[in-house]
């Protein structure tokens, strides 16, 4: 870091010559080479203060404190920047915080100066503030009109305008008080006669310090007005703090040397970690922390080696220490979040999902990252899945289903839905629970829910014929006759043992009658318009191959039978038949 020190020395010389821009540039270059050197931030803060760039000076002072919170002079920098920005209370707090670390003469001097400046600022503002408050009274002119000493003054529109001007600009009121009428106004506003002790009633004599009133039209000799008494000179503003660069003391040099040595060990550990030599990495990171316990990345890296070695308890312990030390060192919140996230990952590997979720959530409150967010969601999902699996009990599922059947027969359809839901939770792989709940939903006219349940039942067991029949029934209730017919036809295909043939045929006949009644009252245009609302029908009708087949069928109806030999085409033709687009003669 000799280059950084050389730049620092050059910056100090430029600062001494008041070449502040040059000093700022040199200190900035030095910081780029040695960002852990708190003295560099302190000196750059001083240079920025020299240019009266108070917000920038404050930013560097705070960074100086962040790098080395035990260095009292950093708080002096912060106090000086806040002093310059006239943030008195914050400046006082900064100096006092520094004094708590090291009660130095420089800090005491800075504290006294900022307190003096704050007092001077208050003193300079008192008069203006008092006048502003009096003239800001919304009942100003009412008070003047009700006072016999001032009521007649309101007849002079120029004087009224002068009062309004003072209301709007109290800081410019000084010259206006050469007019003796203003004394009467102030007296009326304060509720006293300011001239009572200096003149008899009815006298035109003015109290000392004020000029005589303007000349009137009455004849008579005039005398020169007395000179106004000298007003009290304003309190001088407190001198702004003069910045100066800080020399690097022996203690700082030693800390810097140790940090450099620790960083070298950290680099060794990183190389060993990359080579998967975790024993060497562990030793290097541990040594880095022992040399300079000021950087929690040494601990988080050490925890990573324990994690890779499978020692999750040690990983958790080290990360917890990193969080504790990091908070005391005011480490970057991202480092705290990283340590908390690693604790969560270690608990995941230990299969302790509650703790994993806890620490992933804590990490996200410190700093939100997609990686930890995904880990949290995965852990929550796995916990939910396990809870569902632990709840499964086929015997209790059957019992709940029987309870639902009894309630269904008694006409308590809402109660049966609750029992069937419990049956599904106890055994989600049994299609009967979904199918029975669909029947209850159908009775409650909750048709979308019923349709969703029968589709789930079919997904769970594609050979469960009753689900296809129930689906056709639900679609029939929804007046989706074409789809109801398709569901029944799917039931025929699923009923390989022909145990539900009669039930399916009855359903298909019922749907066919509804289709016929629907289509018989429609014109061809109405049928086409209704059918085209079905996306599948619209897709078939836009298929160039199907368009050609339909054109052939119009010219030669027998050709349609040949096309029916193709299963894919046959299915599409059946769809168009059911929709009423292709009509057969009866």
The chain-level structural class is mainly alpha
Integer-rounded radius of gyration: 45 Å
Distance between the termini: 100 Å
Could you report the average pLDDT, rounded to the nearest whole number?
84
Strand runs, count: 0
* CATH level-4 homologous superfamily of the largest domain: Tetratricopeptide repeat domain
CATH architecture of the largest domain: Alpha Horseshoe
Percent of residues in β-strands: under 5%
- By CATH, the topology of the largest domain is Serine Threonine Protein Phosphatase 5, Tetratricopeptide repeat
Summarize the structure.
The chain has helices at 2-16, 20-33, 38-50, 54-67, 72-84, 88-101, 105-135, 140-146, 157-168, 181-190, 250-274, 278-291, 297-308, 312-328, 333-349, 353-366, 370-391, 394-409, 413-426, 431-443, 447-460, 465-477, 481-494, 501-520, 524-531, 535-541, 544-555, 559-563, 567-579.
């Amino acid at each position: 870091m000799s280059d950084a020190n050389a730049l620092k020395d050059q910056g100090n010389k430029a600062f001494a010559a008041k070449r502040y821009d040059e000093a700022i540039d040199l200190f900035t270059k030095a910081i780029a080479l040695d960002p852990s050197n708190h003295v560099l931030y302190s000196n750059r803060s001083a240079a920025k203060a020299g240019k009266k760039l108070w917000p920038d000076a404050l930013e560097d002072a705070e960074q100086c404190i962040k790098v080395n919170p035990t260095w009292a002079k950093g708080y002096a920098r912060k106090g000086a920047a806040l002093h310059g920005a006239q943030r008195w209370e914050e400046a006082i707090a900064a100096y006092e915080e520094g004094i708590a670390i090291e009660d130095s003469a420089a800090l005491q001097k800075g504290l006294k100066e900022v307190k003096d400046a704050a007092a001077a600022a208050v003193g300079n503002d008192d008069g203006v503030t008092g006048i502003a408050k009096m003239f800001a009274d919304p009942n100003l002119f009412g008070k003047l009109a009700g006072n016999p000493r001032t009521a007649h003054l309101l007849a002079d529109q120029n004087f009224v305008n002068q009062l309004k001007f003072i209301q709007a600009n109290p800081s410019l009121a000084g010259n206006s008080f050469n007019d003796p009428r203003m004394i009467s106004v102030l007296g009326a506003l304060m509720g006293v006669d300011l001239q009572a002790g200096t003149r008899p009633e009815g006298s035109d004599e003015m109290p000392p310090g004020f000029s005589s009133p303007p000349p009137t039209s009455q004849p008579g000799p005039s005398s020169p007005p007395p000179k106004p008494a000298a007003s009290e000179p304003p309190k001088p503003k407190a001198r702004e703090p003069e910045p100066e660069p800080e020399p690097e003391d022996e203690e700082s040099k030693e800390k810097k040397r140790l940090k450099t040595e620790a960083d070298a060990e950290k680099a060794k550990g990183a190389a060993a970690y990359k080579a998967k030599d975790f024993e060497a990495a562990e030793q290097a990171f541990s040594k880095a922390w022992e040399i300079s316990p000021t950087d929690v990345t040494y601990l988080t890296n050490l925890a990573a080696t324990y994690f890779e070695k499978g020692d999750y308890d040690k990983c958790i312990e080290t990360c917890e220490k990193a969080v504790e030390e990091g908070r005391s060192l005011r480490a970057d919140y991202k480092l705290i979040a990283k340590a908390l996230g690693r604790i969560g990952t270690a608990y995941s590997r230990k299969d302790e999902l509650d703790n994993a979720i806890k620490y992933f959530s804590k990490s996200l409150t410190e700093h939100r990252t997609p990686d930890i967010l995904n880990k949290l969601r995965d852990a929550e999902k796995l916990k939910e899945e396990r809870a569902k699996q632990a709840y499964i009990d086929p015997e209790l599922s059957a019992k709940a289903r029987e309870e639902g059947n009894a309630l269904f027969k008694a006409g308590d359809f809402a109660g049966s839905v609750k029992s069937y839901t419990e049956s599904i939770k106890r055994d989600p792989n049994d299609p009967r629970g979904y199918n029975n709940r669909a029947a209850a939903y159908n009775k409650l006219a909750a048709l979308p829910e019923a349709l969703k349940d029968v589709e789930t039942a079919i997904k769970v067991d594609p050979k469960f014929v009753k689900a296809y029949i129930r689906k056709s029934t639900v679609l029939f209730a929804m007046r989706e006759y074409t789809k109801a017919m398709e569901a029944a036809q799917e039931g025929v295909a699923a009923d390989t043992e022909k145990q539900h043939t009669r039930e399916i045929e009855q359903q298909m006949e019922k749907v066919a009658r509804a289709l016929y009644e629907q289509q018989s009252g429609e014109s061809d245009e109405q049928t086409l318009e209704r059918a085209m609302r079905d996306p599948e029908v619209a897709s078939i009708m836009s298929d160039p191959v199907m368009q050609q087949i339909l054109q052939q069928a119009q010219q030669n109806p027998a050709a349609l039978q040949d096309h029916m030999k193709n299963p894919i085409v046959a299915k599409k033709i059946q769809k168009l038949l059911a929709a009423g687009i292709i009509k057969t003669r009866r």
